[in-house]
Write a structure and sequence with these properties.
By secondary structure, the chain is mainly alpha-helical. The protein is built from five helices and two strands, in the order ααββααα. The chain folds into two domains: 74 residues, no CATH class; 68 residues. A two-stranded antiparallel ribbon has the order 1-2. Strand 1 and strand 2 form a beta hairpin. The radius of gyration is 40 Å and the shape is rod-shaped.
């Protein structure tokens, strides 16, 4: 859409330039020879500096579901650009794998800490499964 807008802008600028040139050409017949030569030289210089705008047109329109995309062919799609376009995906996958490994390490360390605390405690592990022990903990251990 912006490409079309830019093209329309350039067309309007060209039309305006042609109108101005025609208007100036009408008054140029009355000018002395030296001034008309300077104007001609300035016109040639201005035309040589004019930027030529190359407009790229889409080679096809690809539609997928409710979306459409303009494709410009494969001009510029080299081996390096293919690799460069895959780099963000590779970085994302390697980041997700690293997060998964770190989370597994943290879970394993937490479970190991709990197991070590249970095994080094004064109470046997079977006491934690006893329903009376839970009641004992709720009352605060005061059995006086």
């Amino acid at each position: 859409m912006t490409n079309s807008l830019q093209h329309q802008t350039h067309v309007l600028q060209d039309r305006y330039g042609l109108k101005v040139a025609a208007r100036l050409a009408e008054g140029a017949t009355d000018l002395p020879h030296d001034i008309s030569e300077r104007l001609r030289a300035a016109r040639v210089q201005a035309l040589s500096r004019r930027k030529i705008v190359k407009v790229r047109t889409a080679s096809s329109v690809a539609a997928s579901g409710g979306a459409a995309a303009l494709t410009f062919g494969d001009e510029g799609l080299s081996w390096w650009s293919s690799i460069a376009s895959a780099l963000p995906l590779i970085a994302l996958v390697s980041g997700l794998v690293a997060i998964h490994v770190i989370q597994n390490e943290n879970r394993a360390n937490e479970v190991a800490e709990v197991d070590a605390a249970l095994l080094t405690d004064d109470l046997p592990p079977a006491a934690y499964a006893d329903p009376g022990f839970v009641q004992f903990l709720k009352t605060g251990g005061n059995q006086d």
